[in-house]
Amino acid sequence: RIIEVVEQNETVDQPLKGKKVLVTAGPTVESVDAVRYFTNHSSGKMGYALAEVAKQLGANVTLVSGPVELNEIMGVETIHVTTAKEMYDAVTTRFEHQDFVVKSAAVADYRPKITQTNKMKKKDGNLSIEMERTEDILKTLGEMKQHQYLVGFAAETDHILEYGKSKLERKNLDAIAVNDISEDKHGFKSDTNAVHVFTKQGLEQTIPLKTKHEIAQDLWAIFNKELLGESK
Amino acid sequence: RIIEVVEQNETVDQPLKGKKVLVTAGPTVESVDAVRYFTNHSSGKMGYALAEVAKQLGANVTLVSGPVELNEIMGVETIHVTTAKEMYDAVTTRFEHQDFVVKSAAVADYRPKITQTNKMKKKDGNLSIEMERTEDILKTLGEMKQHQYLVGFAAETDHILEYGKSKLERKNLDAIAVNDISEDKHGFKSDTNAVHVFTKQGLEQTIPLKTKHEIAQDLWAIFNKELLGESK
User: Fold this and answer.
1) Under 8 Å between Cβ of B49 and B26
2) How confident is the model at residue B215 (pLDDT cuts 50, 70, 90)?
3) CA distances from residue B89 to A66, B92, B162, B186 in whole angstroms, order as listed
4) What kind and span of H or E run contains A192?
C-alpha cells in the first residue's frame, strides 16, 4: 500500500517529469542613453510562478528573465537578459530541445533606433525619439516550431478576446493566456490575476481571479493535458 | 562631567536639531501608455542615505521619493510620487518652510507629449515618440529661494566639473554634488559613490569612493557648516 501511494503521488504530482520547459518572464529594458531607458510595468511574477510550478510538477525548467525584483527559484536554471535582442537570442538558441515554451515576458515591441553611450544633454523644447520594432520572438518560435507546445501571453486593455484569438492564429501558438490589464487586480505588479485561455485544440476557459501561483497550476494542467493528448 | 558629555554629544551628534530638511530621491516614471514608460537607472540609494543621515543628525526630514525598491526610513515622512509633475508639486508646495532642500532625485527631463490610457497597438515599421520638457524643479526652487540652502545633484558622463559648476550658477544653488556615472562604482545601482562638491561660498572638494551613507555624512557636514557660517 505504501508503494501504491508513492506511485500514485508520483503520477499525480510530477506529470511534467522528464519534460523540458522554457519560460520567459519580466520586462525588457531598451536604453535611450547611459541613464534613460524605455520599459514596461511587467513584474515577472506570472512567469516566475509558471517556472516554479513547472519545477514542482517535475519538469526540467529554464527561465529567461528580464530585470525583475524577484528571488531566483531553487532548481530552475535562470538566464538573465536585459534587452529584447538578448531575450530573442537566449530563447531561439534554446528552443529546439524544449517540450513546452511559455512566453510570458513583456518584451518591448519597440526600442530606440539609436542608443547613445553617453548621457544625452537636455535642450529647450521638444524631442522626438525614433523607435524601431524589435525582433518578434513569438512569431519566430511559431515558425521554428516542430514538436514543441508553444504558449503566448497577451496583456490587453480592449477587445481582449478578439485580440487573443487572433494572436493564437497569427503566431501559430498552441495556447494563449490573455489578461485584462485594465482591471486593477489583474496582471503586472499584482499578486493575483485572471486570464482567458484559448487553445489550438479548441479549448476556451476563463480562470477567475486567484493568485498567480494558482493560475500557474491551472495553466499547467491545461497545457500538459493537451500535449499528452489525455482526456482525463 | 556627565552633563558636559551629554551636551557635547548633542552638539556633535545632532547639529541639524530643529532644522527642516527636504530630500528628493529616485527616478520618475513617465508613461507612454497603460503599459510602456520611460524612466532612468536611479535607485534612490543616495537620496535615502541623505534623508537617513539628516534624521540621525536631528533634522525633521521629509523625503519625496519616486518609485524605488527601498524600505521606508523610520521617523522620516515619505511622500511617494511617480511623475516629474507630481515631484514638482510635492516639492514646490513644501519648499517655503524648509531650511535645507537636497534634490538628489533623477527627475525625467522629458515626458511623452501624449499618454494613452489604453495599451497602444504595435504596427509594422518605426514609431516616433514626441517628448516634451518636464518642469525644471531645481530652477524653480532657485528662483523661489529665500533663506533655504539649496543643493543639486548632477550625474554626468562627460565634462564633469564644467557641467557641475555651470549648473551651480544657472540654477542659483548653494551647493552641487556631481558624480561621474561613467565609472562603474559611482552612482545609480551601486552602494558606493564618489562625488565632487562645489559650493557658492567657493568650496571645492572631492569625496573619494566610499559608501553612500558615508558620502551623505560628509555632505551634511559641508552643508551644515556653510548654512551655520561656522568655521570649525
Assistant:
1) no
2) very high
3) 33, 5, 30, 29
4) strand A192-199
Q: Which carries the bigger pLDDT value, residue B223 or residue A193?
A: B223
- The architecture in CATH of the region A13-110+128-228 reads 3-Layer(aba) Sandwich (3.40)
A189 touching B, CB under 8 A?
no
Any chain A CB within 8 A of the CB of B125?
yes
User: What SS3 state is found at B181?
Assistant: coil
What's the confidence (pLDDT) of residue B185? 63
Quote ipTM for the complex: 0.87
Residue A107, chain B, CB below 8 Å: the answer is no
B9 flagged as catalytic: no
Q: Mutation test of the interface with chain A: which of B28, B70, B110, choosing the one with the most A Cβ atoms within 10 A? A: B110
User: Is residue A4 within 8 angstroms of chain B, CB to CB?
Assistant: no
Whether A231 has a pLDDT exceeding 70, the answer reads no
Interface mutation vs chain B, best among A30, A135, A157, A158, most B CBs within 10 Å: A157
pLDDT-above-90 percentage for chain A? 72
Name the band, by pLDDT with cuts 50, 70 and 90, for residue A12. Answer: low
pLDDT tens per residue across span B71-94: 999 999 999 999 999 999 999 999
What is the least distance, in Å, from the CA of A127 to any CA of chain B?
A: 5
Residue numbers in B near A182 (CB within 8 A): 34, 118
User: What is residue B227's three-state secondary structure?
Assistant: helix
| Average pLDDT across chain B, whole number | 90
**A33-54 b/e with 16+ CB inside 10 Å = b?**
bbbbbbbbbbbbbbbbbbbbbb
Residue A172, Ramachandran bin (φ over 0: left; ψ between -120 and 50: alpha; else beta) = left
- Do B128 and A129 count as a contact with CB atoms less than 8 A apart? yes
Question: In the CATH hierarchy, which fold is given to the domain comprising B15-113+128-228?
Answer: Rossmann fold (3.40.50)
Contact B133 A155 (CB under 8 A): no
Interface contacts (A, B; CB < 8 Å): 97
Which of A28, A30, A32, A36 is the mutation pick for testing B, counting most B CBs within 10 A? A36
What's residue A192's pLDDT?
83
Residue ranges covered by each domain of chain A: 13-110+128-228
Question: Hey, which residues does B112 pair with through a beta bridge?
Answer: B131
CA–CA distance, A44 with A24 (Å, rounded to integer): 9
